[in-house]
Specification:
350 residues; 8-stranded mixed β-sheet; 13 helices; alpha/beta
């Protein structure tokens, strides 16, 4: 049985993604209206895409009237809704890919209107947006890495927190994520992707790649950790709700189904899950590492970040007892501290 075909799966999925959707910036009242009208998870993608489409139409009307700020805000909203439409292992892979591309276009149009200094950055294994802080001069840069079913359009609040502290942000989709999901399967050696990103950022004006960090969320926390172990240019790393190890046999159906679809088959998914294991890698992490964990984030088959914090040589653990996965229900209790921690470690040497 596939995840989406389970009986009585709709209500738990809506509940389980509520704080994540709010953390991504969706209006909570609109989320309740949209999800309250669903009769099946098969209807989820179209319902969320419809909201995104209406916001794109709003943006076009605002732009025609010369209301640039409103157009940009509507397009950012559209990117969020279009991305959230892809958050489940839906059998219509073509529709999921179309929605990811639409989210990417909406975010690009929003940045063109509101942040003309933003740049598209692409390589063989990633696509992303480089955003610079308002302050003049070369800024440190953080690569923001999403998770298994996520994309660069999700973590607006993380990017804004870093930009406000004078840090440039390159939010990316890597293999298996966002606009890259249709072309490339997830890869466990993500340090190669981050290395490609840093190569692409080197020499760009206003960015100091010698002061680079990485922040990963959910499976992106694993990606950030393995990158910190093997990419020597990173000066600091953050893993938010990231796994230390995966056990395929214990994983929930949502995770195994999503991995199977994104990896291209059960055998490939099992092999990928087997490789998501930081037991031998954590001791190699040579830069400071902050592990952010929610106390209620207990996913079967997933060994959480507490083990990572204990195994890495220079690691700190920030745990919020009532925090859920991605800590969308308690953002003020971890995001400012996390952004401050990264900013301090990427500051120029005294």
């Amino acid at each position: 049985m596939h995840f989406i075909d389970q009986p009585d799966v709709l209500a738990p999925f809506v509940e389980g993604n509520r704080s994540r959707a709010f953390g991504a910036g969706l209006d909570p009242f609109a989320y309740e209206r949209v999800t309250g009208a669903l009769r099946s998870l098969y209807d989820w993608p179209a319902a969320f895409r419809a909201v995104g489409g209406r916001l794109v139409e709003d943006a076009e009307r605002y732009a025609a009237e010369g209301r640039t700020v409103s157009a940009g805000e509507a397009l950012r909203g559209a990117a969020r809704w279009l991305h959230v439409s892809t958050l489940l292992p839906h059998p219509d892979a073509a529709a999921m890919a179309d929605a990811a591309r639409a989210a990417d276009r909406a975010m690009g149009r929003a940045l063109a209107l509101t942040e003309p200094s933003a740049e598209r950055v692409e390589g063989a294994s990633f696509a992303g947006w480089l955003r610079r802080p308002a302050a003049a001069g070369p800024a440190p840069v953080v690569v923001v890495v999403p998770g298994l079913d996520s994309a660069k359009e999700e973590f607006h609040a993380v990017a804004e927190a870093l930009l406000a502290r004078g840090v440039a942000v390159c939010a990316i989709d890597g293999p298996g994520q966002g606009v890259m999901a249709a072309a490339l399967a997830p890869r466990a050696d993500f340090q190669r992707v981050v290395g490609e990103v840093l190569d692409a950022l080197a020499g760009r004006p206003g960015v100091d790649v010698s002061r680079a960090g990485v922040l990963g969320l959910s499976l992106g926390g694993y990606y950030a950790s393995v990158s910190a172990a093997y990419e020597p240019r990173l000066r600091a790393a953050v893993a938010v709700s990231g796994p230390y190890r995966l056990d395929w046999e214990g994983l929930p159906l949502f995770v195994t189904d999503t991995l199977t679809r994104r990896c291209g088959g059960v055998r490939e998914a099992r092999e990928f899950a087997r490789r998501v294991d930081l037991t031998d890698t954590a001791p190699r992490i040579g830069c400071p590492l902050l592990v952010v964990e929610g106390g209620t984030d207990d996913i079967p088959g997933v060994t959480g970040g507490t083990a990572l914090a204990a195994a890495a040589p220079d690691a700190a653990l920030l745990s919020v007892p009532h925090g859920d996965h991605l800590l969308g229900n308690c953002r003020p209790e971890w995001l400012p501290r996390t952004a401050d921690w990264l900013t301090a470690r990427l500051a120029p040497a005294a």
